[in-house]
Amino acid sequence: MSEQEIVTDVVIVGAGPVGLFAVFELGLLDIKCHLIDILDKPGGQCAELYPEKPIYDIPAFPEISGQELTDNLLKQAEPFGPTYHYNRMVNEIERQDNGDFIVKTDAGETFRCKVVVVAAGGGSFQPKRPPVPNIEAFENQSVFYAVRKMDDFRDHDIVIVGGGDSALDWTLNLAPLAKSLTLVHRRDSFRAHTDSVNKMRALVDEGKINFELGQIASLEGENGQISAVNIKNADGEKSLPATRLMPFFGLTMKLGPVANWGLNLHENLIEVDTEKFATSEKGIFAIGDINYYPGKLKLILSGFHEAALMAQAAKKIIHPDEKVVFQYTTSSTKLQKKLGVK
Amino acid sequence: MHIYVTDHNGKEHELEALEGWRVMEVIRDWGLPIKAECGGACACATCHVFVDPDWQDKLHAASDEEEDMLDMVPDVKDNSRLSCQILMSEELDGLKVSLAPSAKPDAEVA
Ligand SMILES: Cc1cc2nc3c(=O)[nH]c(=O)nc-3n(C[C@H](O)[C@H](O)[C@H](O)COP(=O)(O)OP(=O)(O)OC[C@H]3O[C@@H](n4cnc5c(N)ncnc54)[C@H](O)[C@@H]3O)c2cc1C
Ligand code: FES
Q1: Is the CB of residue A20 less than 8 Å from the CB of residue A34?
Q2: What's the whole-model pTM score?
Q3: pLDDT at A1
Q4: Do A117 and A263 have their domain in common?
């Protein structure tokens, strides 16, 4: 765990489209940001759920895909040098006596900032848990949804379940160090890169790994340690000896720690006003899909508007003595300098 | 036209459906709990239902895209379908489905 404190003006929880645009609006007002997201990439729902699908209601873009929108937002934010922290969850936000906030992640970092912007969208993306009795009791001890340290899998009997790229990639990566490895999938067809599927089939043919058709039915083991994974398929049940299990069924959004930050909620959404998009806690703002106010529309364009107004209010907290002059990017040389326009 | 939806507690609901609506939309708009987090884009698999065996063959077969998405369902069965991929039409008047555990709005995650 790192003891070092990262000091910045603003911490943005969530690097979805709205969090990304907030970097731009805050940047124009000379405010520096760090963004934290549990995903391994920026773009939130746009990048995780529909990167290839076209969006038709972004002003001035008759058609743009989720991924293109994300790439453009990153480019637009770039002049302001934001720092992105991926693969970590924001767990805690604590107010200090001097008004600063301390923000803590599950990766052990601590951030100190003057303003927190919650742009947590539909909640944090978390792995889907198979509905197998008692699976919780084994999680993070012998059942894992991600590989943090490859060595934790060395010389183990590994069972991997799923048919997508994560399942295939980890099958290939872990095969050389496993004592045994079995891939379990509901059908003999995979929605992963052809190259990975071919490599996996080659390993099966060479007898280095096993492939089983089926689904997890139950687990055996005690004290957090599994000893077998029972699968069922058309032929009935089968027991696979296993000391490590990795289910890969993709991600789903869950509100997560947002509910524990002491903010007033309205049916799992954070209540804000429509002037500043401030929450019930001074210095904490909420923008994008995560907030609620009368008339709220969960649209990207609404989130962009919210980011602009929030930035004005955040400015007054971060630089209370500076007077904010309203300016256009088209005509203000000051703003253009910040944007690096030559 | 109507569909019959069995909820997570085993209770059956008769819901009015309109031609051209997705079964997911019918379920959601009548207020039954279904996560359907991608809003019908065949991108999340959280609108998973089990189709009554009597009705399984009356539905058009799942597209490749739907089959691929069904891989993301942790509790898939032979009669699993994504309800956002079933469009209501006269022939489906009386369709029976039940909500799958993995379609619960607060579906348990790690
Ligand atoms: C299939 C589909 C189609 C859509 N089509 C349109 C459309 O045509 N037009 C439109 O305007 N909108 C559309 N939307 C909605 C649009 O995608 C959302 O309004 C938008 O993504 C909201 O952006 P956001 O930044 O508020 O949140 P999100 O995109 O949800 O991003 C929030 C991010 O915060 C992260 N996060 C949350 N909590 C934490 C935490 N505690 N720690 C770390 N990270 C956390 C999440 O992992 C996530 O990456 C569509 C949505 C879907 C699913
Ligand atoms: S609603 Fe997402 S796949 Fe059906």
Answers
A1: no
A2: 0.87
A3: 47
A4: yes
